[in-house]
Amino acid sequence: MIEKLFELCRENNIPLYDIYEYDNGAILHKTVNRSHRVNNLYSVSKTFTSVAVGMLCDKGLLSMDDNVHDLLGREDCPEIWKKVTLDLLLSQRSGVGQMFLDIDTDDIENYKTDDFLGLVLNRPMDYEPGKYFGYSDSNFYLASRIVAKVSGVYMQEFLREELFAPMKFQAWSWAVCPYGHAAGGTGLYLSCKDMLKFGIMMLNGGVYEHRGYISEKWLNQAKKCHSYVDSSNSYGWGMWRRYDSDVCVFSGAFGQVIFLDPENNRVYAWQAYDPKNKVAILLDTLYGVSAKKFD
């Protein structure tokens, strides 16, 4: 399949950098256009933040029913955050109705404060929590702060210890707020090969090279359709699903993708700079050969 995807990139001038395929144990690689070794994953970062939350759930330190207000323990946190559980936060149903705290596009000088946590918590809610799907980076910044509060270290340090170093990632970096906390919803820099390794671990129930990183039980819940977005798409805990498929997609701006195909035991990962969303051609091709119907 990687040869077909490579040819589609050439035929349609799709601006991919690297593309990797995992096919039942075999790893294949193609370079379409040369790039830096590591690049911004944009919203693929959200899946890593979700996994950090899941790891703490596995340790018994968090529950997906815990609420933001009590977890953060901040005196100026409005009472409405008692209604926002980790489930609602990671499935983008917090009550925030629009993109907020997007450090990739926002001008930080407009924030008027270094306290991003206070900025998020005290922003008026757009909707009643749980009633609306509102895609916002702010939800995952809150998750980053919760991971740090519960684990005792910055989330990026927690994941270094629990995931990045033991899985032998080539290199990593995460954009942080003025107080040093990972942005959560964006800003993670990894190589494309390490995106694939993460995808293999997610495909294999949390196991990579005979080591377990997160429980299959938590991952199965994360991959469910928690938020109904439109007639075709749903959202789990930091990942996308289609209703007619068991495929999971972790995607980010400008064409960053990890594509999990459990039916065929395959994972695809690529990086790009694709402002015109030409990678949709590749996604449609993969969906066409991968998706099985729900029971």
Helical content stands at 25-40%
Report the portion of residues in β strands.
Answer: 15-25%
Query: Mean pLDDT, nearest integer?
Result: 95
CATH third-tier fold name: Beta-lactamase
Strand order of the largest sheet: 2-1-13-12-11-10-9-8
Oligomer: single chain
CATH class: Alpha Beta
Strand/helix succession: HEEEHHHHHHEEHEEHEEEEEEH
Major sheet: size, sense and barrel closure? 8 strands, antiparallel
Give the low-confidence spans. Answer: 291-295
CATH architecture annotation: 3-Layer(aba) Sandwich
Summary of the model, kept short:
With 295 residues, this protein is α+β, with helices and mostly antiparallel strands. It has helices spanning 2-12, 45-58, 68-72, 86-90, 116-121, 137-151, 155-164, 192-203, 216-222, 280-290, and strands at 16-23, 26-31, 38-40, 173-174, 188-191, 207-208, 211-212, 227-228, 233-235, 240-242, 248-252, 256-261, 266-272.
Walkthrough of the structure:
By secondary structure, the chain is α+β, with helices and mostly antiparallel strands. It has an eight-stranded antiparallel beta sheet, with helices on both faces. Strands 3-5-4 form a three-stranded antiparallel beta sheet. Residues 291-295 have low confidence and may be disordered. It is 33% helix and 18% strand. The relative contact order is 0.19. It has a single domain, classed as Beta-lactamase.
